[in-house]
Recover the amino acids of this structure.
């Protein structure tokens, strides 16, 4: 992103983020949660996860979202992010039978963290969708992170957007 454009990112991305949350019914997992969630039928190509779960078009999936404001404004200290997210996933494991989803997924810049939590990390095919998602998520990071655009220069992990997947069976195996 061009340096001059960066200063305007919060002014147009934050309202878009709020609008998308309402449009797609993205809600907190629970009161004060670091994770947000929404549900929908899967619309992509079939995916075979490492545990043998096959996610097919039409299968009910849950999309996980990070509450960017909570994660980046001191509500969760960076060194506690893994611990807090594990707690969220344990809560989710206790709810999984009621949710009736085949798998959980997300599109994230934080794929190194999710891999440590048991998620399978997948590349997103090159193209306009990946480019736009990369731009949007990087813009949100700049908008919400206390260091803003400095986070892009100081970070130690790759900020390449990727898909992350965890089957309901794997969630139960890891977190129940």
């Amino acid at each position: 992103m061009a340096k001059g454009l960066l200063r305007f990112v919060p002014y147009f991305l934050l309202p878009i983020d709020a609008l998308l949350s309402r449009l797609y019914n993205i809600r907190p997992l629970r009161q004060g949660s670091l994770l947000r969630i929404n549900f929908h039928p899967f619309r992509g190509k079939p995916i075979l996860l490492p545990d043998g779960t096959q996610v097919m078009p039409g299968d009910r999936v849950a999309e996980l979202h990070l509450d960017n404001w909570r994660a980046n404004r001191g509500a969760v200290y960076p060194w506690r992010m893994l611990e807090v997210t594990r707690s969220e996933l344990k809560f989710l494991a206790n709810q999984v039978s009621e949710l009736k989803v085949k798998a959980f997924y997300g599109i994230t810049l934080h794929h190194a963290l999710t891999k440590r939590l048991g998620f399978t990390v997948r590349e997103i095919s090159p193209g306009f969708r990946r480019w736009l998602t990369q731009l949007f998520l990087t813009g949100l990071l700049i908008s919400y992170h206390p260091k803003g655009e400095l986070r892009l220069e100081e970070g130690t992990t790759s900020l390449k957007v990727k898909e992350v997947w965890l089957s309901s069976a794997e969630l139960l195996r890891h977190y129940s």
